[in-house]
């Protein structure tokens, strides 16, 4: 029903406006008596064979929602009922910021892709904390970044602020230095500043009564030498894993009218490259750390390929928009068939 009826209607409107409309619609839907149980029956696959224990956390299934969809933790409870095993909120920054000027979100229908240049638009970490304090049983990842006005040589302070603020309300952290939409942010992926940033957060982590897993989200545009640096950095700082990958700045092979828009590209064109990065990291590190695979998952087979390449968990974003919640069920059902 989603692909044949709802998606054609939704895709007629501006993508950012429809995103907010969808949020309010889902929120209203779940206020209808019995709706939650119907949604759960339609899309959830509950089976202990789907459970995964990764970096010390128990996931009820390995299919998560990637950061960027529920930036401000406004809809994580409702979204969890569609069958996700975990929800990643953010990217959040210390202070609220509007992000880049609109229009900043573009569908590439022919390529089954999206280009965004949102620019970490969010209400600030304090707002997210208030909402997450109401969480009861949703496994939450906190994706953290720096404010646009913060210079790179002071960026570590922004990550510290977000880390401390979110510590008691998330289950794991993701350090985002790979978005292409905040000027200069990807420079923090260089070996020296990245090692310093992650080591600082690990020192803070060690001071807590019980530490939380810290993951690094990387770009798909890194060279092999840079990926080898990532492996070294993970070993040096002893962080818990890597999310591969964020959006790409590549436009290779695109056919859609919006293909030249500036920003990060996600969706089907990223499928192959993100899987290549996962396989490279897994093989070259000798499976030394867990990987969450994200990028171009539009089918159960896409998810299985990422798991075969070395991913312990997977995340959806653009595939969820194009395929709907049935995709979550399809992946979990296929995983059971493979079990």
UniProtKB/TrEMBL annotation:
It is found in: Cell membrane; Membrane. The active site is at 179 (nucleophile). The gene is pyrD. It comes from the Bacteria. NCBIfam families: PRK05286.1-2, PRK05286.2-5, pyrD_sub2. Catalyzes the conversion of dihydroorotate to orotate with quinone as electron acceptor. It is an enzyme of class 1 (oxidoreductase). It comes from Croceibacter atlanticus (strain ATCC BAA-628 / JCM 21780 / CIP 108009 / IAM 15332 / KCTC 12090 / HTCC2559). This is Dihydroorotate dehydrogenase (quinone). The lineage of its organism: Bacteria, Pseudomonadati, Bacteroidota, Flavobacteriia, Flavobacteriales.
């Amino acid at each position: 029903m989603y692909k044949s009826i709802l998606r054609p209607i939704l895709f007629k409107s501006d993508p950012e406006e429809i995103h907010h409309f969808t949020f309010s619609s889902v929120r209203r839907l779940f206020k209808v008596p019995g709706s939650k149980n119907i949604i759960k029956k339609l899309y959830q696959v509950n089976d202990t064979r789907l459970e995964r224990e990764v970096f010390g956390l128990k996931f009820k299934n390995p299919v998560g929602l990637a950061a960027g969809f529920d930036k401000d933790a406004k809809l994580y409870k409702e979204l969890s009922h569609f069958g996700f095993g975990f929800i990643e909120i953010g990217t959040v920054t210390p202070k609220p910021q509007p992000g880049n000027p609109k229009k900043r979100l573009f569908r590439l229908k022919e390529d089954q892709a999206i280009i965004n240049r949102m620019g970490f638009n969010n209400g600030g970490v304090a707002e997210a904390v208030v909402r997450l304090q109401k969480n009861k049983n949703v496994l939450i990842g906190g994706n953290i970044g720096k404010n646009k006005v913060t210079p790179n040589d002071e960026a570590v302070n922004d990550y510290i602020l977000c880390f401390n603020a979110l510590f008691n309300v998330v289950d794991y952290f993701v350090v985002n230095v790979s978005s292409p939409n905040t000027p200069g942010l990807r420079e923090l992926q260089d070996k020296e500043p990245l090692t310093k940033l992650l080591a600082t957060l690990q020192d803070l982590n060690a001071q807590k009564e019980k530490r939380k897993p810290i993951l690094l989200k990387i770009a798909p545009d890194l060279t092999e030498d840079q990926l080898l640096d990532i492996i070294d950095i993970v070993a040096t700082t002893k962080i818990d894993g890597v999310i591969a990958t964020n959006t790409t700045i590549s436009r290779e092979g695109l056919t859609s009218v919006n293909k030249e828009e500036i920003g990060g590209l996600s969706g089907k064109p990223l499928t192959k490259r993100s899987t290549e990065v996962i396989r490279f990291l897994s093989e070259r590190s000798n499976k030394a750390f867990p990987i969450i695979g994200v990028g171009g998952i539009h089918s159960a087979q896409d998810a299985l390929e990422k798991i075969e390449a070395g991913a312990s968990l997977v995340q959806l974003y653009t595939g969820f928009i194009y395929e709907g919640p049935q995709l979550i069920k399809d992946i979990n059902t296929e995983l059971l068939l493979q079990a």
